[in-house]
Amino acid sequence: MIYETDAEKLAVARAEAEKGAAEGGIPIGAALFTSAGVLLGSGHNRRVQDGDAAMHAETNAFHNAGRQRSYRDTVMVTTLSPCWYCSGLVRQFGIGRVVVGDDRNFLGGQDWIAEHGCAVTVVNDPGLITMMAAFIEGNPALWNEDIGEE
């Protein structure tokens, strides 16, 4: 299947976020696509489920995409602005484009990756903004743990 629009790609990430929430985790999802719209891998934040601090949504999607010769022609789609850790992954591997579903609840390193050549598209989808805001309000300690705040 080819995912032609950002909305179609974001729907894959949203489904992952919903899956994470249903599992009792943090509702953030991501997916890695080729620039032609082929899904390479998707995933969701699994920190709670796996007891693994490194398993953010973007890293899970990256892991599930498997080894690629190059990432310059890929698009990372994420339901929430990537944190500094995930922004580092984007920069380290030269992912060419990032689509952000929500940067109102959290603004990670998206400006930094843009300054270093990554094309960033911010959607600010109302449903994703509402979902994340409700999670943060209901789970402040878990949210702060996820973003490295005390």
Commentary on this structure:
The protein is an alpha/beta fold and 150 residues long. The chain has a single domain (6-147), classed as Cytidine Deaminase, domain 2. The protein has helices spanning 6-22, 47-50, 57-65, 84-93, 110-115, 126-138, 140-147; strands spanning 29-34, 39-44, 74-78, 97-100, 119-122. A 5-stranded mixed beta sheet has the order 2-1-3-4-5. It is globular. The chain starts with 5 loop residues before the first helix and ends with a helix. The mean pLDDT is 97.
Structural class: alpha/beta
Helix content: 40-55%
Unreliable spans = none
What is the CATH T-level topology? Answer: Cytidine Deaminase, domain 2
Strand order, biggest sheet? 2-1-3-4-5
Output the radius of gyration. 14 Å
Mean pLDDT: 97
Number of domains: 1
The termini sit apart by: 43 Å
Portion in beta strands: 15-25%
The CATH architecture is 3-Layer(aba) Sandwich
Major sheet = 5 strands, mixed
Envelope shape: globular
Continuous helix count: 7
CATH class: Alpha Beta
CATH superfamily: Cytidine Deaminase, domain 2
The H-and-E topology, N to C, reads as HEEHHEHEHEHH
Number of β-strand runs: 5
GO molecular function: diaminohydroxyphosphoribosylaminopyrimidine deaminase activity; metal ion binding
Subcellular location: Cytoplasm
Subunit structure: Homodimer.
Organism: Agreia pratensis
